[in-house]
Amino acid sequence: MKSLLIILFLGTSVLFLLKQNLSEKPATQDWETLFNGKNLDNWDTFLGRPFDRPDQAIFGFNNDLPEVFSVVEVDGAPALRISGAVFGGISTVKEYQNYHLQLHFKWGKEKHEPRLNAPRDSGLLYHGVGNHGDGDGVWLRSQEFQVQEGDCGDYWGVAGAQVDVKTTKLNDSVYQYDPKATLRTFSQSAPQGRHVKKQPNAEKPSGEWNTLDLYCYKGKSAHVVNGVVTMILNNSQLVLGEDQKPLIKGKIQLQSEGAEVFYRDIKIKPIDKFPEDL
Fold this sequence. Notes:
By secondary structure, the protein is mainly β. It is built from 1 helix and 20 strands.
């Protein structure tokens, strides 16, 4: 009987500890859905003017008269459709920092001026700050995880954004990510410019769904395409004239840039450290 009581006591203690550990798990285990599949609640839009109407006033903030952004069904599931007909973006109302963002995207068929003969283009902007339109008249000041045919995973600095990336200079003066190379600074004012080419290419053929993962912790970020790390970025900054400060928090913005594209399963969760396996 005594042995049975000891076993019961130990079993109860183990169950209690397991329950306590589960209840104390940090919120980093929980995803927050950013796109609910029904409407565009918790998102803001900003649009410029049609390419063929240079004298027209911009559509501006939350005035999507041409219906560039909409919810549709694609492959049996809801998706955010971006027509690309007018340059602009759709951004989260909330700001985020220290997170893992995941989404799926695939290209549609439509293309629009001025990119009828160019690769299909969009973009995942993160750490978005400032005013809508600070970036090329239509986007936020931000870091860009490029979403473009053949270039998915590239980096662009938007409107004063700056990062340090390990790169190798190619023959065409383009800098490409190389984890074993020299750390260089990229920005509008840097000699190297504000663009870094991804390495390797992990994008699926046009028309297939791709998975993008973005990890951001403090000043460091990782661009991951279909499970493949295409770039690690360091020391995220915003440089405006003589003023320089860390750029580690902001809105998330998806670009409308001349091509039809679909996004779905957009979700985010906080992290308390940068993943060691990237």
